Each structure stands twice: as structure tokens, then as C-alpha cells.
């Protein structure tokens, strides 16, 4: 399954809804191209809605890091929202959970783009504890 990307806006923040796989080949390339094009038009903050992403490989992780680096060079950032368990575990194992801002709710991700708004961030430690409890 290839990667589908739908663009929309939420309170002035661009949200990219991703569905499919972020993997080597057209998927990772399409994401990098889209973020590069948005960056060229002045978009600085971006929310990636990942609920529909079932798999990210190492090339996909690299694409996410490259996208974040592109935006950060220009004073922006990428926020990740609605990751599935596998993708959260992948970010934790690769220590990329410390590189990205992760949110459980899109509105919290959007609010994080505005310094005067209250934000509830995703608690990785709480997530890990819940997983351990489920496995017991």
C-alpha cells in the first residue's frame, strides 16, 4: 500500500493526514517533497496525523527526521499525532521520541504551535507503563 497524503488546515496550522506506509520508495519521497513544497511557501509548523499509518521503516524514519530538520532550520517544527502502538514503540526504541513532539490529540498538537495556549503532551513513560501492565 502506498502513502496517501491529504492536506487540510486547523486554526491556521497545516495538517497532513497520512494513510498507508512510510517506507523506502515513493512513500518517503512523497512526504519529503510535500514538506519541502510547504516549507517553500512559508509553512513553518506542521501536524502529521498518523492514525492511518500502519508501518514506518528506517527510510520512513529518515524522511520524518529530514522533514523536521527542514522546518526547524526555518524556525518551525513537526508535531506527530495519533501514532499507533507499533510506531510509538519504534520511536521509543530509536530514541526519536525525544526528537519529535508527540500528541494524543490533534487539537493539543495545534495548540502547541501557539505559545499562549495550554498544551497536554503525550506522556511516553505513561504509555510504556500501560503497555507493561497489559502484558502482565
Q: What is the CATH topology classification name?
A: Transcription Regulator spoIIAA
Counting DSSP E segments of at least 2 residues, the number of strands comes to 5
Largest sheet report: 5 strands, mixed
Biggest sheet, spatial arrangement of strands: 1-2-3-4-5
**Which overall shape is indicated by the principal axes computed on the Cα atoms?**
globular
Walk me through what this model shows:
By secondary structure, the protein is of the alpha/beta class. It contains 5 helices and 5 strands; from the N terminus they run ββαβαβαβαα. It has helices spanning 26-40, 58-73, 85-93, 106-111, 124-135, and strands at 4-10, 13-22, 45-56, 77-81, 101-103. Helix 2 links the parallel strand 3 and strand 4 (77-81). The radius of gyration is 14 Å and the shape is globular.
Summarize the topology.
Elements lengths: L3 E7 L2 E10 L3 H15 L4 E12 L1 H16 L3 E5 L3 H9 L7 E3 L2 H6 L12 H12 L1
Parallel strand pairs: 2-3, 3-4, 4-5
Antiparallel strand pairs: 1-2
Can you tag this structure with a few keywords?
single chain, 136 residues, alpha/beta, Transcription Regulator spoIIAA, 5-stranded mixed beta sheet, 27% strand, globular
Amino acid at each position: 500500500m502506498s502513502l496517501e497524503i491529504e492536506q487540510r488546515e486547523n486554526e491556521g496550522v497545516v495538517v497532513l493526514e497520512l494513510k498507508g506506509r512510510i517506507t523506502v520508495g515513493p512513500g518517503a519521497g512523497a512526504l519529503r517533497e510535500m514538506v519541502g513544497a510547504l516549507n517553500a511557501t512559508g509553512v513553518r509548523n506542521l501536524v502529521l496525523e498518523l492514525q492511518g499509518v500502519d508501518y514506518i521503516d528506517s527510510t520512513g524514519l529518515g524522511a520524518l527526521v529530514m522533514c523536521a530538520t527542514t522546518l526547524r532550520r526555518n524556525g518551525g517544527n513537526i508535531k506527530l499525532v495519533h501514532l499507533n502502538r507499533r510506531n510509538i514503540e519504534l520511536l521509543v526504541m530509536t530514541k526519536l521520541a525525544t526528537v519529535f513532539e508527540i500528541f494524543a490529540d490533534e487539537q493539543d498538537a495545534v495548540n502547541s504551535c501557539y505559545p499562549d495556549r495550554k498544551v497536554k503532551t503525550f506522556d511516553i513513560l505513561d504509555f510504556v507503563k500501560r503497555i507493561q501492565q497489559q502484558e502482565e
